[in-house]
């Protein structure tokens, strides 16, 4: 009786061997230290009031970035283990990881890096600056925003619990069936994978809706769509992709969970299931996902290059058209991920050509950035260094992408390390460098002081050097016929030396990470010297630089009125002032713990589904429903800031800055 | 706490060295040269199957790879020149023209819409043509009749069946050089991908389906083959040797197996079920009386029929009705 | 100031309703992937029963009618609410709830009789995709009913406040949406399946 209450939980899921034990120990130790520290310094009340229940998009953004950074360290730790294994496991040496464990690590690495690092950083940065940039006080639905964040956290928590209790999928980050079906993966690993990204994915979906409404409904007066900063356009493109692509992920994962939980046959090998349908569906989400991540990075670089070059962005309209073209085209290319399925010449050629067509607007964007620099006065602050790093590496990723898009070539490099090098080239060179640039660029606006420049530049150098050192050997290994996801290989192939060089490159990236942490710590320590008193440290162009740093909770005491693109730059150069007229009353959302509770209940639900604890699942759902119903019919969810109060706050913050 | 602050204020972080722009550029160039030198040393004497091809299909794919790479380099070069040129010339403090409000020029923009469009157009034509001419399902033109080999991906080994010779082998496949080979590929396991890099690649092995790969070796030799798609624990060991033999060499190989040489067993459905159990395997040879194993395995998963009746499935050996399904329809979702 | 704007702003044009439309579109895509899977798998009966053997059109037609009428009554409720008639609103919403529960009951009856005849979702890919698609619609109806009860309770307690009007409008959009999805299910799953 008692056993059935615990579903399929068993003791042995705690112990997997010494390597995992190290990870478990580190995780439990870290969490306990954090909890003890919070208790010792009596910070729980402060944490709850100021952070966990906040509805302020900027603070939610900071929390996203903190969680994503922790997950980046975890995902990077996974990468180092993979590299070490591949550097060691030639011939008779089996390395230090069992095949099953190695496969869990690369599955976790991919899943964590895409869903919990890249998506987390992206939503974090959008939350930090999008409302400010649009001249708005907040996003359209603050509570939904906080709920999305906690759904993301619930996903993160589930993925990490798998390390402590159970196992993770050993099936690759997209878990192709039939391998991911019960017949071949009966354990809880695939379920952990499934539910953690299902929950985080729903959070992303809701964020997508939130940001679309924010962009279309909450822009400053006078900011027509064609006067909107390019970053906002890029977010619009990305979020349109989110609301069109993530439902497919939700549906597909739902079907896979029906297969695994209720014994259905959507994608099984037997009884008529169709695994090819899963592969089609998952990439119908998966390819747009790549553009969901890269478009905001493009937007960030558009802002950074124009600001740092002290010059208007070249070809604004072309940039917008290119962004929208990429948005549409990215839906028409998914089948290039499986030319080797045998769909025939016509289908393959169509998807290959559509893929290449995307290179045209992307190329146009690169040329526009270059000509923004041309005849400018370029200040090489850290964000601009990240741009140089991006421009140097990302174009190689783009070029290898076009090469891979030719189906007849793809037959020879599909699933090889050439492919692995290609997508790391676009994700690290494009997405990661972009987000790091954006972080360094907007950091002063949120925290009120700059990041230390030289430590930042040291980090960029290590990242670029490490990246090239890691992935050029991986491209070459692809040419040597090395396939991905190998936990060992034959020594006669001559791969080991390249794997070692690649591993050294990863360590160099690790040094870059160390520099980033040092930069952050040093900047916090020296924050008074690095203080941004002007609110406009880079001589910026867009509205976020028109308010003091750190930006006040309400963003704008008086809402700005915009007449031109680069409104703040024009206002500084003698154009029309953007703040005029009288102060007026405005409302702000009250703090709410609803997001926290929903996140907790949903995590509980996910855990119950993974371990087949049905009563707990029902209980969790009742919890979600109760929380939602109570909140939905609360009437007083906002408070009013009066005009006088707004004026007083504004004067105070201006005085503090001066 | 104040104590900690007092200690902290005494700590001096060693300041990072200031590096001039020129030194920085020089450092990167030296590091780059050293890296390339290292790669040259490390790579000497190693083989590059994708470039050192030994089969007609692989050679044509390699030529295409080189063509696309050259095109890519043609685009990348001007980008790099402009990127570093502009970065250097227009760094803050320069005395050249500064045009803060210059934000567009339709003629210039037409150039960088135009040039990529032309390049992609060229590549698209090539893509269209080669997607058809190098379709893995398309038989190769040759005066010789293709040798038919059936391939079943198992957990974690490859079973090769020669339906006309009535023999079978595990993790080794032999065929005469210069004669086209038509592989019919299926899976009785999770999805795999069948790949012999030096002869040409690659196609998925999926249960309930029969995909095809047409290859031809130009040179006698042993080539490495593998599964490139993760299929479970033993997947890294799912490699095989593809042996392109001379015509006599191939006949000897077949005879060797046919004449019940040492270690050659009989493969029937019972023995097949033993073989299909998860696990890696060395090279094995079999002779067969029942030529329908491949069809039985395909039919097992087809139309959702979990057929255990081997006799009915063997009837359509000549019809190969299921092969029509080989070309899947990509559902428009 | 903002609050003044709020109450003069029509409920339909508020960002919340716009956002809700976007949500409905995403839910539509979740259903689209389930529909696509059903269409791909409908022939995969694994030697077991197919659409023709198990669907009874008159019964499904009854289900369809029940749901269509509930959509109509929910629309009547919204009209009454816009005229600030609380009693009428509640009356129409009660009718909607009863019809919704009747629909759910009919569907559960259909499911349980299929399972009892040995045609459960584990039997074939066709049956999986059928139960998956229709069941997902059923779960939506169940969620809608819980939402409806909550809305009725609060309208009863507080009257038709601005906030409740907004929630009611959203619910009615949701309910109509489920109706449209059902019409697609009726056509694609049942009608085409039987013909």
Please tell me about this protein's structure:
The complex is a heterotrimer of chains A (658), B (333) and C (195). Chain A is mainly alpha-helical and 658 residues long. Chain A contains 20 helices and 2 strands. Chain A has helices at residues 2-5, 18-40, 44-52, 57-88, 99-134, 142-164, 189-217, 230-262, 275-309, 316-329, 345-373, 382-404, 407-413, 417-447, 453-479, 496-525, 567-572, 594-611, 614-632, 643-657; strands spanning 586-589, 638-641. Chain A has a two-stranded antiparallel ribbon. In chain A, helix 6 packs antiparallel against helix 7. The radius of gyration of chain A is 25 Å and the shape is globular. The termini of chain A are far apart. The model of chain A has no long low-confidence stretch (mean pLDDT 94). With 333 residues, chain B is α+β, with helices and mostly antiparallel strands. Helices cover 38% and strands 20% of the residues of chain B. In chain B, strand 6 (192-196) and strand 7 form a beta hairpin. Mean pLDDT of chain B is 86; it is low at 304-333. With 195 residues, chain C is mainly α. Chain C has a single domain (54-194), classed as Cytochrome c oxidase, subunit III, four-helix bundle (Four Helix Bundle (Hemerythrin (Met), subunit A), Up-down Bundle). In chain C, 83% of the residues lie in helices and 0% in strands. Chain C has helices spanning 2-8, 15-41, 51-54, 57-82, 86-116, 125-158, 162-194. Residues 1-8 of chain C have low confidence and may be disordered. Classes of the chains: A mainly alpha (658), B alpha+beta (333), C mainly alpha (195). Chains A and B meet through helix 5, helix 9, helix 10, helix 11 and helix 12 of A and helix 2, helix 3, helix 4, strand 7 and strand 9 of B.
Structural descriptors:
heterotrimer, B: 333 residues, alpha+beta, Immunoglobulin-like, 7-stranded mixed sheet, 8 helices, 12 strands, 20% strand, elongated, disordered C terminus, C: 195 residues, mainly alpha, Four Helix Bundle (Hemerythrin (Met), subunit A), 7 helices, 83% helix, 0% strand, disordered N terminus
């Amino acid at each position: 009786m008692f056993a059935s209450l615990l579903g399929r939980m068993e003791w042995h899921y705690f112990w997997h061997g010494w390597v995992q034990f190290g990870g478990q120990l580190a995780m439990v130790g870290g969490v306990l230290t954090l909890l003890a520290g919070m208790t010792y310094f009596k910070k729980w009340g402060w944490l709850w009031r100021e952070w966990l229940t906040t509805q302020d998009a900027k603070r939610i953004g900071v929390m996203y970035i903190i969680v994503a950074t922790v997950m980046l360290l975890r995902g990077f730790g996974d990468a180092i283990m993979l590299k070490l294994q591949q550097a060691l496991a030639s011939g008779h040496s089996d390395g230090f990881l069992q095949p099953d464990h190695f496969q869990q690590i690369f599955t976790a690495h991919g899943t964590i890096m895409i869903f919990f690092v890249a998506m987390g950083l992206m939503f974090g940065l959008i939350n930090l600056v999008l409302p400010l940039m649009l001249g708005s006080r907040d996003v359209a639905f603050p509570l939904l925003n906080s709920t999305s964040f906690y759904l993301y956290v619930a996903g993160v928590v589930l993925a990490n619990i798998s390390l402590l209790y159970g196992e993770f999928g050993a099936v690759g980050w997209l878990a192709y069936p039939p391998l991911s079906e019960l017949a071949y993966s009966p354990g809880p690993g695939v379920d952990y994978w499934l539910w953690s990204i299902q929950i985080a994915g729903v959070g992303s979906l809701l964020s997508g809706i939130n940001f679309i409404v924010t962009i279309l409904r909450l822009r400053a007066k006078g900011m027509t769509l064609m006067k909107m900063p390019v970053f906002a356009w890029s977010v619009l493109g990305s979020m349109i992709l989110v609301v069109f692509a993530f439902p497919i992920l939700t549906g597909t994962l739902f079907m896979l969970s029906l297969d695994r939980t209720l014994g259905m046959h959507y994608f099984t090998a037997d009884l008529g299931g169709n695994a090819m349908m899963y592969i089609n569906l998952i990439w119908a989400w998966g390819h747009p996902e790549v553009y969901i991540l890269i478009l905001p990075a493009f937007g960030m670089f558009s802002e950074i290059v124009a600001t740092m070059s002290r010059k208007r962005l070249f070809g604004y309209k072309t940039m917008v058209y290119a962004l929208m073209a990429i948005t549409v085209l990215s839906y028409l290319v998914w089948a290039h991920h499986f030319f080797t399925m045998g769909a025939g010449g016509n289908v393959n050629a169509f998807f290959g050509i559509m893929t290449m067509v995307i290179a045209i607007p992307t190329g146009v964007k690169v040329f526009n950035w270059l000509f923004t620099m041309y005849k400018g006065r370029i200040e090489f602050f850290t964000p601009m260094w990240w741009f140089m790093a991006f421009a140097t590496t990302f174009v190689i990723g783009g070029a290898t992408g076009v090469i891979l898009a030719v189906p007849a070539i793809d037959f020879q490099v599909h699933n090889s390390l050439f492919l692995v090098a290609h997508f790391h080239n676009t994700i690290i060179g494009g997405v990661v460098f972009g987000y790091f640039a954006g972080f360094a660029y907007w950091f002063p606006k949120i925290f009120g002081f700059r990041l230390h420049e030289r430590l930042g530049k040291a980090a960029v150098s290590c990242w670029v050097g490490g990246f090239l050192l890691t992935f050029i050997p991986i491209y070459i290994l692809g040419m040597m016929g090395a396939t991905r996801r190998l936990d060992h290989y034959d020594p006669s192939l001559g791969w080991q030396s390249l794997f070692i060089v690649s591993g050294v490159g990863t360590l160099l990236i690790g040094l870059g990470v160390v520099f980033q942490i040092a930069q952050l710590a040093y900047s916090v320590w020296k924050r008074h010297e690095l203080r941004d008193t002007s609110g406009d440290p880079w001589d910026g162009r867009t509205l976020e630089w028109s308010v003091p740093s750190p930006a006040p909770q309400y963003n704008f005491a008086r809402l700005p009125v915009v007449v031109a693109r680069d409104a703040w730059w024009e206002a500084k150069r003698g154009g029309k002032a953007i703040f005029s007229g009288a102060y007026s009353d405005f409302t702000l959302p009250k703090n709410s713990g609803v997001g926290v509770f929903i996140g907790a209940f949903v995590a509980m639900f996910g855990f119950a589904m993974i371990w087949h604890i049905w009563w707990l699942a029902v209980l969790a759902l009742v919890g979600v429903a109760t929380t939602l119903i109570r909140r939905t019919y609360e009437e007083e969810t906002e408070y009013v800031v009066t005009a006088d109060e707004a004026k007083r706050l504004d004067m105070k913050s201006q005085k503090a800055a001066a | 706490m104040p104590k900690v602050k007092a200690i902290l204020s005494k700590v001096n972080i060693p300041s990072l060295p200031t590096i001039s722009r020129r030194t920085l550029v020089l450092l990167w160039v030296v590091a780059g040269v050293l890296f390339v030198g290292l790669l040259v040393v490390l790579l000497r004497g190693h083989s590059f199957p994708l470039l050192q091809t030994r089969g007609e299909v692989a050679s044509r794919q390699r030529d295409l790879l080189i063509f696309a790479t050259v095109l890519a380099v043609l685009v990348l070069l001007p980008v790099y020149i402009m990127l570093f040129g502009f970065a250097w010339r227009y760094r803050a403090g320069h005395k050249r023209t500064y045009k803060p409000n210059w934000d567009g020029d339709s003629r210039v923009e037409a150039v960088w819409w135009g040039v990529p469009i032309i390049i992609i157009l060229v590549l698209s034509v090539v893509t269209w043509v080669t997607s058809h001419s190098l379709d893995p399902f398309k038989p190769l033109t040759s005066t010789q009749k293709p040798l038919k080999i059936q391939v079943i991906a198992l957990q974690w080994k490859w079973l090769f069946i020669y339906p006309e010779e009535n023999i079978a082998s595990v993790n080794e496949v032999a065929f005469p050089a210069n004669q086209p080979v038509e592989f019919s590929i299926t899976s009785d396991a999770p999805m795999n991908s069948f790949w012999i890099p030096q002869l040409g690649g690659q196609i998925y092995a999926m249960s309930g389906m029969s995909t095809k790969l047409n290859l031809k070796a130009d040179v006698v030799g042993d080539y490495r083959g593998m599964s490139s798609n993760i299929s479970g624990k033993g997947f890294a060991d799912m490699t095989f040797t593809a042996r392109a033999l001379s015509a006599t060499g191939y006949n000897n190989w077949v005879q060797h197996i046919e004449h019940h040489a040492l270690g050659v067993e009989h493969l029937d459905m019972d023995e097949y079920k033993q073989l299909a159990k998860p696990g890696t395997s060395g090279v094995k040879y079999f002779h067969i009386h029942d030529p329908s194993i491949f069809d039985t395995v395909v039919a097992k998963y087809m139309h959702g029929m979990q057929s255990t009746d081997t006799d009915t499935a063997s009837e359509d050996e000549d019809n190969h009705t299921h092969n029509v399904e080989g070309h899947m329809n990509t559902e428009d979702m | 100031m903002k609050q003044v704007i709020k109450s003069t702003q029509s409920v339909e044009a508020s960002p919340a309703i716009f956002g809700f439309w976007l949500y409905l579109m995403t839910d539509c895509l979740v259903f689209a992937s389930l529909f696509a899977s059903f269409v791909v798998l409908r022939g995969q009966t694994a030697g077991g029963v197919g659409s023709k053997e198990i669907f009874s059109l008159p019964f499904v037609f009854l289900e369809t009618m029940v749901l269509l009428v509930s959509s109509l009554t929910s629309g009547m409720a919204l009209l009454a609410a816009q005229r600030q008639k609380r009693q009428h609103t509640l009356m129409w919403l009660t009718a909607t709830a009863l019809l919704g529960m009747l629909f759910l009951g009919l569907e559960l009856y259909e499911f349980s009789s299929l399972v009892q005849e040995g045609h459960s979702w584990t039997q074939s890919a066709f049956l999986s995709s059928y139960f998956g698609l229709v069941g997902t619609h059923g779960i939506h109806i169940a969620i809608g009913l819980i939402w409806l009860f909550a809305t009725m309770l609060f309208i009863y307690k507080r009257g038709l406040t601005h906030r409740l009007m907004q929630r009611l409008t959203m619910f009615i959009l949701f309910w109509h949406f489920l109706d449209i999805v059902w019409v697609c299910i009726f056509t694609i799953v049942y009608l085409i399946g039987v013909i």
